Amino acid sequence: MKIGIMGGTFDPIHLGHLVTAEAVRESFALDEILFIPAARPPHKLGKFVTDEQHRLVMTTLATQSNKFFRVSDMELKRKGLSYTLDTMNELHKTFGRSTELFFIIGADSLADLFKWHAARELVKKCHFIATTRQGVDVDFSAVESFFGSAAREHIHRVTTPGLEISSTDIRDKVRSGRSIKYLVPEVVEDYILREKLYDDR
Ligand code: ATP
Ligand code: MG
């Protein structure tokens, strides 16, 4: 089994996440993609993050029409900080050692990978698929010199459709009463408006 992992705050999940996950699934012939909303991402401490139940519901709604997409609440259940190393260890326990894990990260996150908790150990244990993100240029030679040969074997780069969409931008739009049509799935748009999620921040 080859499983793709799409982690994120998903506040809210948007078409950039979805189109990327689908493109990676196809190019790497992955059996499924697991979307894992993060409880409290270590790099977003001090920032307001929407209630986890709302983020879980939106992620579930957004992925339900793709039979290869699944959602896991494992990081929400674990509480505390979401470290990818813990998540990966838990997934290896669940799926067994023969399952290969592929973490999908945006170019912006790849540039920061060396700062992650236990980064070197992580890169040895699982694969990373770094996708292109508009406006972000990653110095791969810097990544390689930090991670050494593990980088060549376990960090893969892929060009994906590259939609210039961010959750930050979506939250701003909602707050200022602008349209978010075609940036998020319709079910997610309906949910955001019905629950008045980003009206005041
Ligand atoms: P925020 O603006 O709140 O930081 P975001 O849009 O960056 O939100 P996250 O939940 O932080 O979304 O991102 C989760 C993962 O998805 C990260 O690896 C990020 O690089 C990737 N990602 C986010 N937006 C896109 C996009 N438009 N295209 C490709 N990958 C994306
Ligand atoms: Mg982000």
Features:
single chain, 201 residues, alpha/beta, Rossmann fold, six-stranded parallel sheet, 6 strands, binds adenosine-5'-triphosphate, binds magnesium ion
Explained architecture:
- The structure is a single chain.
- With 201 residues, the chain is α/β, with parallel strands linked by helices.
- It has a single domain, classed as 3-Layer(aba) Sandwich (Rossmann fold), CATH 3.40.50.620.
- Helices cover 43% and strands 16% of the residues.
- The protein is built from 10 helices and 6 strands, in the order βαβαβααβααβααβαα.
- It has a 6-stranded parallel sheet, sandwiched between helices.
- Helix 1 (15-27) links the parallel strand 1 and strand 2 (32-37).
- Helix 2 runs antiparallel to helix 10.
- The longest helix has 13 residues, at 15-27.
- It is globular.
- The relative contact order is 0.18.
- The model has no long low-confidence stretch (mean pLDDT 92).
- It binds adenosine-5'-triphosphate and magnesium ion (MG).
- Adenosine-5'-triphosphate binds next to helix 1, strand 4, helix 5 and helix 9.
- The site of adenosine-5'-triphosphate has 18 residues, from helix 1, strand 4, helix 5 and helix 9.
